[in-house]
Specification:
Distance between the termini: 14 Å
Largest sheet: 8 strands, mixed
């Protein structure tokens, strides 16, 4: 099982939309997928039709109660999901009191066999606290989601510092890699979008990573698909919209890059 965490410490960049569409796209490519929702807002969980997790084991239990993931996961249209939980809002303080606060998610996922799941996709909260760092310790690769604005980009240094601390500790995750930077919410009609496209590849190179060639264009259909009560994917909701095509291209690009590295 390969584990990929989608993150940025800044909110509103579309991490959930990207991680959800990526998981759905992998499933459409014939892969077995598990999505772990670590965001207290539970948007990914709600988008698959799970609106109430009271009395249900969730990602919170994986982090705080050492609950094995195989006891938490539920069926989703794209495969499996470890549901989010509003209690994740309290997880930062609670994790700080544990002996191994950064290893909980990794330990929980160990019960998932490679034969059952091909990819585990983690939707991280908008922070670099204990919850996100649990995802970084559990992950094989990180996808940094940014929008075409200065705040998304200038904050990348904070992500890099957290990444370096995790990677430099042999007891945490010395093999962790940044797969690349994914530009979300792109608009050819905006001057800033065009400038970011020109500057971001060199910026990524300075940090020893890449900007993915695929850019996810701004598209209202993504938000509409997430809110649809039938829990449809953006690929089904509006198969010809810009975002559906872009997300499909991103999945293909990721798998192609993975094939070259193999």
């Amino acid at each position: 099982m390969k584990t990929i965490a989608f993150l940025n410490h800044k909110g509103g960049v579309g991490k959930t939309a990207c991680s959800l569409a990526f998981a759905q796209g992998l499933a459409r490519a014939g892969k077995c997928v598990l999505l772990v929702d670590l965001d207290q807002q539970m948007n990914a969980t709600q988008s698959v039709g799970i609106t109430d997790t009271e009395g249900m084991p969730t990602a919170y239990d994986m982090l705080l109660a050492a609950r094995p993931a195989c006891e938490v996961v539920r069926e989703a249209p794209f495969g499996l999901i470890a549901p989010g939980d509003v209690l994740l809002a309290d997880a930062e303080a609670e994790l700080s009191s544990l002996d191994t606060p950064l290893m909980m998610l990794k330990d929980s996922l160990e019960c998932i066999s490679d034969g059952l799941i091909d990819y585990c996709v983690i939707d991280c909260p908008p922070s670099l606290g204990y919850v996100t760092r649990n995802a970084m310790v559990a992950a094989d690769e990180l996808v940094i989601v940014v929008q075409p604005d200065e705040a998304s980009i200038t904050g990348f240094g904070r992500i890099w510092n957290a990444y370096e601390r995790i990677k430099s500790n042999k007891h945490l995750n010395p093999d962790l890699l940044i797969a690349g930077i994914l530009l979300n919410g792109f608009d050819w009609n905006r001057r800033l979008s065009k400038r970011v496209v020109r500057e971001l590849p060199e910026f990524a190179k300075d940090y020893g990573t890449r900007m993915f060639d695929t850019k996810i264009r701004n598209c209202e259909a993504v938000r509409q698909a997430q809110a649809d009560p039938e829990s449809v994917t953006v690929y089904d909701y509006a198969p010809n919209c810009n975002a559906a095509r872009d997300f499909s291209d991103f999945v293909s690009e990721y798998l192609e890059l993975e094939g070259r590295a193999a």
